[in-house]
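Support case: manganese (II) ion complex. Customer-provided input:
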Amino acid sequence: SDSDPLQDFCVGDLKASPSINGFPCKSGVSASDFFFSGLGGPLNTSNSNGVTVAPANVLTFPGLNTLGIAMNNVEFAPGGVNPPHSHPRATEAGVVIEGSVYVGFLTTNNTLFSKVINAGEMFVVPRGLVHFQWNVGKVKARLITAFNSQLPGAAVLPITLFGSFPEIPNAVLTKAFRTDDATVDKLKFNFAV
Ligand code: GLV
Ligand code: MN
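Agent response - structure generated as follows:
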């Protein structure tokens, strides 16, 4: 959903300030600007979610600047969860490369569409909708995802709500979640920055 390019390419000059449609073009382009080796893994998934994401977006792969696409390599330990999040600037497509993954997204009417899918099976997440994935297998799982934006952005709900800096006031979160300060404090503690 990014704007259409007006030239063949515009490899991003990340040292320049971004402007409204991405980065200015760098001069002196070579073949290496159009290749990226960062999606191969394996990634270390020993973290609290059991998930690690390696992004190929304009910030890691400046050749994508103005091209309107990005990809991720997402790897899961057994039981790992990619937490509920949304991409404000992109629809997502994904394919399971390895393992067995419960994939779901929520409509703006709070209907959950979900399914367990296996290697070779694809899913989509309409732009901006909240979604998640969970490795339901006993072994590692791996997805490759693709986006129609050079920088899809991700609002990861638990972190957005409980791990922001500065913090969202407890008065807001206790009301919004119909709970008490102790519960909100516990969640904030878990996501402390
Ligand atoms: C998966 O949801 C991803 O954003 O790569
Ligand atoms: Mn996603």
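The radius of gyration is 19 Å.

Case will auto-close in a few days if no follow-up is received.
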